[in-house]
Specification:
Length: 327
Amino acid sequence: MKVMVTGGAGYIGSVATEMLVESGYDVVVFDNLFQGHRAAVHPGATFILGDLADKAQIDAAFEAHPDIEAVMHFAAYSLVGESMQNPFKYLDCNVTNALRLLESMDEHDVRKFILSSTANLFDDPETIPITEKERIVPGSPYGESKAIIERFLHWLDKTGKIKYCALRYFNAAGASETRGEDHHPETHLIPLVLQVALGQRDRLKIFGDDYDTPDGTCVRDYIHIKDLAQAHILALNDLDKGSRKYNLGNGAGYSVKQVIEAARQITGHPIPADVVDRRPGDPATLIAGSETIRKELGWEPKYPSIEAIVETAWNWHKNHPNGYGDK
Ligand code: UFG
């Protein structure tokens, strides 16, 4: 099957591309390289430098590859804090770009769609672990942008235009053997911790230790990037049975302090850290209830422990101290 991967040069999209190519899929990566890295694109994929802001470029990609049957849509902005500063960026890029893509898919008779959605749909959840039954209360313009797309997909399904699966990721982390996390600027906990271990940063900031959690720091559900990518492939292969939404995480929460401690063990570096003020918008605890995808698709994480996740990230960062070296 031929699959278009938008954002296939980015952190999650590049690993999904790697796993798709290695599982025998024909992959067309469509990416504007604003955030992604050309070197992150698997050499077995066809690369199109294209921008979802320009519908003619999307149309041209489908016309050049009329056998594309499905789209995995990763290309988006994904920082909660940034979206609070600049909500229009998120509305414009995340929402309108996705709608242009979906319209072009319809015009070119491409009917399968996998959406990168987010745990930021669930601000202040009533029940933890957070299952698909939790009501949707986006925590930021970023979360709202994904909620809008999910709602619109519901109608595209009802009108027979698209079959879709929305995967609400919790905290994507870790690396494959060859692809890892290289954001500019970096804001995510695990790569920042590892930058301290590499001597690229003196100390880490812990954003608040007065949360209602066992050690006072925020608890997150870290899911390995390859487990995440595998979920996309399973979801794609099951789409004929109907559209659905899955919450996707390991179901185990680790605090910021636990992540730092795991990194100390793995790297042998003391990783000095200072507690500073809370970061606005951070909920205390986000843990996924992923029973539905386990049951329906047989998805099983291969890297459930924080140690395994941090270790793969550490291996990548040690081998790529300057990331892909292009930014
Ligand atoms: N943190 C620190 N110090 C840092 C960086 C992060 O203490 O220097 C803390 C944060 O406050 C948070 C935790 O580490 O409690 C994880 O923060 P990240 O920035 O790594 O990830 P987020 O939980 O903010 O967000 C990520 C994705 C979002 C997604 C969300 C879903 O970036 O796109 O997970 O859970 F919506």
